[in-house]
Design a protein that fits this description.
InterPro entries: ATPase_NBD (IPR043129), ROK (IPR000600)
CATH class of the largest domain: Alpha Beta
Strand order of the largest sheet: 3-2-1-4-7
Number of strands: 14
Helix content: 25-40%
CATH architecture of the largest domain: 2-Layer Sandwich
Radius of gyration: 19 Å
CATH superfamily of the largest domain: ATPase, nucleotide binding domain
Family: Belongs to the ROK (NagC/XylR) family.
Mean pLDDT: 95
Structural class: alpha/beta
Protein name: ROK family protein
Pfam families: ROK
Shape: globular
Largest sheet: 5 strands, mixed
Order of helices and strands: EEEHEEEEHEEEEEHHHHEHHEH
Number of domains: 2
Distance between the termini: 29 Å
Number of helices: 9
Low-confidence stretches: none
Strand content: 25-35%
């Protein structure tokens, strides 16, 4: 068996597992599909297969979930509701470190930044979420749940909607009646209606970025998520954010897409779990 550290990213459409093995530079990865019917048993079976097939013995395991985490369990999970109450998979008596997925991305992106940094990280996949550092400390809120920007109420001609309902990947799928692969195909074919839907969603995401720039005055804003991959989405978001941010605040920060976005959440979960196993006190502010 090979000693390893494991990071797991559970999303509304995918389960991504990575393992960093002792003595190896490149991690092992595996990606599987998830959906609203996914259960804890499904995830635990997939994790066990991954570990068994590669003969891995995890010394630590970080598990990132798309919901609110409290006291080591999933308290609320809209996109995967059957995970509510779950405490994560156990492998070889290794109890996982359970953490919100955006906090995991924040942990990955915080590595290498100055300790005094003020950072906002946004992910836009099935839904939208965010997490923040202020001068190197995680902004947690009274119960540790700060960052649920997907629930930001937005006035529209259809009434008050959540940002998730306007900017998230699930919103684009609902509005077009197409799956993600079909949306990409329609955009490539020049479908005007689909392009307008994607750009409208990007505009809503850009307004969210501007809101965070104006409220938090960060020096760094980083974004990732599968929805940003739709042509036109990110360009529209960036232009909208620039237009609606106070110019002085916009000029004082950098706004970029996260490099290697596919692995950022899993890498953050892995980093947090490994640091927790080593007794690093800073991990507590993330979980």
């Amino acid at each position: 068996m090979t000693p390893s550290t494991v990071g797991i990213d559970i999303g509304g459409t995918k389960l991504l597992m990575i393992a960093q093995r002792t003595g190896h530079d490149e991690p092992l990865t595996r990606r599987l599909a998830t959906g609203i019917a996914t259960t804890p048993d499904d995830i635990e079976a997939a994790v066990q297969r991954f570990l068994t097939e590669h003969r891995l013995t995890p010394s630590s395991m970080g598990v990132a979930v798309p919901g609110l985490v409290e006291d080591g369990r999933v308290a609320v999970c809209d996109v995967l509701p059957k995970l509510t109450g779950w405490r994560g998979p156990v492998a070889d008596d290794t109890r996982p470190l359970l953490v919100n997925d955006i906090r995991s991305a924040l942990a990955a992106e915080a590595r290498g930044l100055p300790e005094s940094s003020t950072v906002a990280v946004l992910l836009c996949g099935t839904a939208v979420g965010s997490a923040y550092l202020h001068q190197g400390r995680v902004v947690r809120g009274c119960r540790g749940w700060a960052g649920e920007i997907g629930y930001l109420p937005v006035p529209t001609p259809r009434g008050i909607l959540r940002l998730d309902d306007l900017a998230g990947g699930a919103a684009i799928v609902r509005a077009t009646g197409l799956g993600p692969t079909q949306v990409h195909a329609a955009l490539s074919a020049g479908d005007t209606a689909v392009r307008q839907t994607v750009e409208a969603a990007g505009e809503s995401f850009g307004l969210a970025i501007a809101t965070l720039v104006n409220i938090l005055n960060p020096d760094t804003v980083r974004a990732a998520g599968g929805t940003l991959g739709y042509p036109g989405y990110w360009d529209t978001a960036l232009a909208t954010a620039r237009t609606h941010s106070l110019p002085e605040l916009w000029e004082s920060c950098t706004v970029d897409r996260i490099k290697d976005p596919e692995l950022v959440v899993a890498r953050g979960a892995l980093r947090l779990a490994a640091a927790a196993a080593d007794g690093a006190g800073w991990v507590e502010q993330y979980v």
